[in-house]
Specification:
It contains six helices and five strands, in the order H-H-E-H-E-E-H-E-E-H-H. By secondary structure, the chain is α+β, with helices and mostly antiparallel strands. The strands form two sheets. The protein has a three-stranded antiparallel β-sheet. A two-stranded antiparallel ribbon has the order 1-4. The longest helix is centred in the last third of the chain and has 15 residues, at about 165-180. It is elongated and about 85 Å long.
Length: about 190
């Protein structure tokens, strides 16, 4: 049997339910002028991905596919290939021949960044990647590679910072400064 509603339940509860509405109804509206005035993002904002380069222009990606394995959304596809002396794309034995990120699946969690052993893959502050064409949201290696800075050379080319992989992984910052290559973080020659 249904209980009769009290006077409080009949009159006060609906008014209390609209409390938030009544409180915000008379506040000044804050309007973001987004496309015309872009606010800066937080320093550690997870935007789109970028494949980084060494100071001489070689790619940091070694095609290990750890980022693809770490991705919970299965949004990354990597196909590695072997470097040769005639065609060297990275300082190691291998490089990422095919690299794709499907931004229809990506959840921007950053697990791929944590999995990368060479710090090749990072997330930059760029966030305007929306598109009305599904095919354009599958970014390839050419879309993801960092631009060549002054002093960098388009791969394939021989190793310029040393003769071995260790020269790149241990001594690269010192050698880059010595030979006038750009700082990969700041993009300037020191």
């Amino acid at each position: 049997m249904a209980e009769a509603k009290t006077l409080k339940e009949q009159f006060w509860d609906p008014v209390a339910g609209f409390g938030v509405t009544f409180r915000t109804m008379f506040k000044k509206v804050v309007t973001e002028q987004y496309p015309f005035e872009k606010l800066p993002t937080a320093p550690r904002f997870h935007g789109r991905h970028q494949l980084n380069r060494w100071p001489d222009g070689l790619e940091k990606c070694i095609g290990c596919e750890l980022c693809a394995w770490a991705c919970p959304a299965d949004a990354i596809y990597v196909e590695g290939a072997d470097n040769t002396e005639d065609a060297r794309f990275s300082p190691g034995e291998r490089y990422g021949r095919v690299y794709q990120i499907n931004y229809l699946r990506c959840i921007f969690c950053g697990l791929c960044i944590e999995a990368c052993p060479t710090r090749s893959l990072t997330m930059i502050n760029e966030y305007e990647i929306a598109n009305d064409n599904r095919q354009d949201l599958i970014w390839t290696k050419e879309d993801l590679l960092a631009p060549l800075l002054r002093g960098m050379e388009q791969p394939p080319h021989p190793m310029r910072l040393g003769d071995t992989e260790q020269d790149y992984y241990v001594d690269a910052p010192r050698l880059a400064r010595k030979w006038g290559y750009p700082d990969p973080v700041k993009g300037e020659v020191k």
